[in-house]
Design a protein that fits this description.
elongated, 2 helices, 17 strands, ten-stranded antiparallel beta sheet
C-alpha cells in the first residue's frame, strides 16, 4: 500500500491559520522544545495512513507528506548481491563476508531517497556466493519507529517514521546464525514549512557474538538525522543492536 502526497506552498487565507504570517517568522515556531521516539504497531500505522488520507485544512502548513507502508522485498535466492562488492570482515573469533552498504542516505531535503538492493546489508560466512548454500532463514522481521520533533507551540513540525527490517537465522552447513538483507527504510515523512530533514543510515563494524564453531554476527545500526530551520540546526542518532539470532533492540 502506498500513499504519496506532496503539498507545496502555503495558503495563508485559511481561517485555521489566520496568523500564519506572524507565526512563520516567530522564533518560537522554529524552536525545538522536545523530541519523542516511539515504536509503532501495525494498528498505529493504519491510523497514520487514515490521518494522511483525510488531508483536510489542518495540513495547509505541510510542505511535504510521504507514506509507504510496504515492507521491503527480501531476496534470498540466486547469487548474493550480484554486482555489489563484498568485503571480508575480520570478526572476533571468526571471519565474515559483508555485502551491501555501510552508509547510505534515506532522506534528502525532506524527500525519501530511492533505495536499491545494494543498500541492504548481509553478513554471511566467508566464500558463500549463492543463497542456496544456506538454509533456515526466518521470515522477514521488522520494527517501525517514529521520531517527532515538537516546537515551542506544541506543534509536531517534523515527523519521521522508519522501518528496520531483516532476515536472520540463516545457517551454513548446519552451523551459525547469519543476517540477510538488513536495512532501514523510510515509512513516513511529514515536514512543516520552514523545516528541513536529512537522514542517513550507518552500520558499525561486525563482531562475532556467538561461538567459534557456531558464529553469530552482531552489529550496531545508526539512524543519523539532521533538522534545520532558519535559526536552528539539530542532530540526533538512534542506535540499534542487531544480531544473526534475531535480536533487534533500540539502545537508549
Amino acid at each position: 500500500m502506498k500513499l504519496f502526497i506532496t503539498v507545496l506552498g502555503i495558503i495563508l487565507t485559511n481561517p485555521l491559520y489566520a496568523t500564519d504570517k506572524s507565526l512563520l517568522v516567530d522564533p518560537l515556531y522554529h524552536q525545538i522544545k522536545k523530541v519523542e521516539v516511539r515504536e509503532l504497531s501495525d494498528l498505529s500505522l493504519e491510523e497514520l495512513a487514515a490521518k494522511l488520507r483525510e488531508h483536510k485544512d489542518s495540513y495547509m502548513l505541510v510542505e511535504s507528506d510521504y507514506l509507504n507502508l510496504s515492507t521491503p522485498i527480501v531476496n534470498l535466492q540466486g547469487e548474493i548481491a550480484p554486482g555489489a562488492s563484498g568485503s571480508r570482515v575480520v570478526g572476533q573469533l571468526y571471519n565474515f563476508s559483508r555485502y551491501g552498504k555501510l552508509i547510505y542516505q534515506i532522506i534528502k531535503e525532506n524527500a525519501p531517497v530511492r533505495q536499491t538492493e545494494w543498500d541492504a546489508l548481509s553478513v554471511l560466512p566467508e566464500n558463500v556466493k549463492n543463497w542456496s548454500e544456506m538454509s533456515g532463514w526466518s521470515a522477514p522481521a521488522s520494527k517501525v519507529y517514529q521520531v517527532a520533533y515538537v516546537n515551542a507551540y506544541g506543534m509536531e513540525v517534523v515527523t519521521f517514521t522508519y522501518r528496520l527490517s531483516y532476515s536472520y537465522g540463516g545457517s551454513y552447513k548446519g552451523t551459525g546464525s547469519y543476517l540477510g538483507n538488513l536495512q532501514i527504510s523510510p515509512v513516513q515523512v511529514r515536514v512543516l514549512w520552514g523545516y528541513k530533514l536529512n537522514a542517513k543510515v550507518m552500520a558499525s563494524d561486525i563482531r562475532n557474538v556467538g561461538l567459534e564453531k557456531s558464529p553469530v554476527p552482531g552489529l550496531d545500526m545508526k539512524v543519523h538525522y539532521e533538522i534545520s530551520t532558519m535559526i536552528v540546526d539539530e542532530e540526533r542518532v538512534d542506535l540499534f543492536y542487531v544480531t544473526g539470532d534475531g535480536t533487534a533492540q533500540r539502545l537508549e
